[in-house]
Amino acid sequence: MAYIEWQEALAVGHPGIDEDHQTLVDALNRLQAAVAEGRDRDEVAAVLYFLRDYTVSHFKTEEALMIQYAYPQASSHFAAHSDLLMQVSDFIAEFRSGKLVQGQSLVDFLETWLINHILDSDRALAVHLQGRVLAG
Ligand SMILES: [Fe+2]
Ligand SMILES: [Fe+2]
User: For residue 16, which of 135, 110, 133, 96 has the smallest C-alpha distance?
Assistant: First the structure.
């Protein structure tokens, strides 16, 4: 994969979540650019750390909504988030130790993960939230 173009098909219908996802797509595109253009390590690191930190805060937002609105699939969704964060920590450790040579495969992995997660888990969450809001 290369750049992700934000499109309506990626929107889940919850404004706050969609806005976060657009920021994540944007950051992933910046990581893609930094890797593809062979930018220096500091630049790649800056984008990578931004992406990690933003992902942590986005996951917290979704998890708080799951708790607030008694989402039945919360535990598997929480688990998916924590698995991803563990993999990202491993990538960062490899990057720090200089072992991460396949920057493109990291970008590809993150893009595939994010798109699949949005279309499947986050969309299901948004449908639940919508139902709860309508139910008052
Ligand atoms: Fe999620
Ligand atoms: Fe999400």
Answer: 133
Ligand closest to CA 125: 1
Per residue in 60-109, pLDDT tens? 999 999 999 999 999 999 999 999 999 999 989 988 888 766 788 889 99
**Ligand 1 centroid distance, CA of 38 (Å):** 30
| Best CATH choice for the domain 12-135 from the list 1.20.120.50, 3.40.50.1370, 2.40.380.10, 3.90.1030.10 | 1.20.120.50
CA of 81 to the centre of ligand 1 (A): 6
Question: What's the pTM value of the predicted model, to 2 decimals?
Answer: 0.93
Other beta carbons within 10 angstroms of residue 37's beta carbon come to: 8
Distance 8 CA to ligand 2 centre (A): 15
